[in-house]
Amino acid sequence: MSGKKTPSTIHRPSFTIRPARLEDFEEIYDIFCDVLNEGKTYSYTLAEMTPERSLAYWISAKGTHCMVADIDGKVAGVVAVRPHRTGRAHHVANASFIVHPDYRRLGIARALGEAALKYAKKHGYKAMQFNFVVSVNKIAVELWQSLGFKIVGTLPKGFDHASKGLVDVYIMHRFL
Q: Where in the chain are the domains?
């Protein structure tokens, strides 16, 4: 028998999805900074997403509900669910996701996506919309499609990808 690891022999750490706590913010911000530095999924820059703005974005803004994937007390991924718009559009949710680079491909994004959909439905939202899914982020596009999202719009060359240059951005939507 070779020493090659098969999927059944690779250790996959277990994780739990729980509400974020204020004391999680330092880890959330570190992950967010890593993702922003990658330049592959978020349009924000580090210069504009100060710790104060990031705290509001992920945790403290009115109507935002943040959950984390917790592996042995460490934040491995984050989702923030919020109203997409106010007033006559308050029935549509929006969500933002990040997964720590060391914990990708473990099912964390799927679990966070499922938790976000469950939360949104429980809290009376009728649909969820993602405004900015980078088209070349095939893993994300396929994940959201597998969770029932449809591409409802394309912003041609709407994102300046760190290695691929100008690429399209999708708007994705699903009813709850």
A: 16-175
For residue 15, pLDDT over 50 is answered with: yes
Long-range contacts of 109-115 (CB under 8 A, 24+ apart): 109/77, 109/139, 109/140, 109/143, 110/143, 110/146, 110/147, 111/15, 111/17, 111/69, 112/17, 112/67, 112/69, 112/77, 112/78, 112/79, 113/79, 113/143, 113/144, 113/147, 114/147, 115/17, 115/67, 115/79
Q: What topology is assigned to 16-175 in CATH?
A: Aminopeptidase (3.40.630)
Task: Using the predicted structure, report yes or no on whether residue 3 has a pLDDT greater than 70.
Answer: no
pLDDT digits (tens, 9 = 90+) for 92-101: 999 999 999 9
Q: In whole angstroms, what separates CA 123 from the centre of its chain?
A: 19
| Residue with the two structure tokens 């041609």 | 156
Predicted TM-score (pTM) of the model is 0.90
For 28, 47, 111, 157, the CA distances from 70, given in Å and listed in that order, are: 11, 28, 11, 35
Q: Are 144 and 138 in contact (CB under 8 A)?
A: no
Asked if pLDDT for residue 77 goes beyond 50, the answer is yes
Rg value, the chain, Cα? 17
Q: Say how far apart CA 74 and CA 67 lie, in whole Å.
A: 13
Kindly report the average pLDDT of the chain as a whole number: 93
